[in-house]
Amino acid sequence: MSKLYYLGTDVSKEKIICYDGKEEFCFENERGLREFKRFLKKRYKSLEEVVVIFEATGVYSAFLREFCATNGIKAVMLNPRQTPNLAKVIGGRNKSDKIDARMLYRFKDIVKAEDIKVPELDKELEEICAYFSSYRLIVKERVALNNHLKALERNPFAPEELKKVLKGEISRLREQERWLIEEMERRIRSREELETDLELLLTIEGVGMATAIVLLLLFKRYEVRNRNQVVALLGLDPVIRESGRSVRFRSRISKQGREETRAILFMAAMSGIRYNSKLKAFYERLVERGKPKKVAIIACARKLALIAFAIYKTKTAFNPTQGNDKNVKNNAGRKK
User: Fold this and answer.
1) Please, which contacts does 71-75 make with residues 24 or more away whose CB atoms are closer than 8 Å?
2) Measuring CA to CA, which of 18, 166, 215, 223 is 20 to 30 A from 229?
3) Distance set, CA 77 to CA 11, 23, 91, 95 (Å)
4) What's the rounded Cα separation, in Å, for the pair 59 and 130?
5) CB contact set of 239 (below 8 Å; sequence gap of 6+)
């Protein structure tokens, strides 16, 4: 295997800064990354020798991810929730783009070989994700307006004309939500393998179209390999703080995953408790054991996600009489 050259790469809105272990380089963060490509071709014999280490920071890193995928450049895409922990370990107190690039470069010593790979780019899937991002934004706007309208209805001085305008805007946003869901469904059903996965997820009692779509995008886009990854991506992994006999905090979920996905899953769990016999029985057992209702709902959301992941991996429909979530172990994503 030829020698690999690592580049710690910090991505901002306008610039990307690279550190190769000796010095920093700055380039425009534009589609195609022409300056960056000329630099790599001039500096290295082959682009296959280069490994770009960067944080997957949403839209800001999209150009770099696309660049690596189209040019066959290996990359290590880090969870931005994890990288600050390394900075603390190595004693970093200051923060700047250059310092971040140097810190990202240090990941070359601890990264796993299976995490070094050319990113896969599914244009159609990325377009569906863009629709979902807009859907979540509109939902937030509608909920905020709805709460504001309820407050105005308790205000005797609020003009009726104002409330009428807000009601019309809320109706318009609901129409946009419906259109976005229908458009995402149409695009998913245009691909046979995606449509199959969607139909299987919809067999889960209590899971509607919006929940099925968001779970499918989570599993597909992040190439989820095991149950632990599912829980971590959703921020449903427990955090325990204990030290000796005196420090014992109540455990809680990390909330370090995707907030918008977790919110939809919570709503699906509440629906599942009513209509899904398996989830309802699980919820009632937890409450009978003395668990607070909110904790029980969180546990149901976690179980629902694991059931969905098992169905996605095994390609089998939901069976309320069997434990779908037990069919996939932590090594489910490993190659045989």
Assistant:
1) 71/37, 71/47, 72/47, 72/48, 72/118, 73/40, 73/47, 73/48, 73/118, 74/4, 74/48, 74/50, 74/116, 74/117, 74/118, 75/51, 75/116, 75/117, 75/118, 75/119
2) 18
3) 12, 21, 23, 20
4) 10
5) 251, 252, 253, 254
Residue 124 token pair: 């159609």
pLDDT (tens digit per residue) in 203-231: 998 899 999 999 999 899 877 888 888 88
Residue 240: strand, helix, or coil: coil
Q: How far apart are CA 34 and CA 93, in angstroms?
A: 33
- For residue 233, give the amino acid letter: L
> For 51-100, how does the pLDDT look when each residue is reduced to its tens digit (9 = 90+)?
999 987 678 899 999 999 999 999 998 876 666 666 555 545 456 668 88
Distance of alpha carbon 120 from alpha carbon 191, whole angstroms:
17
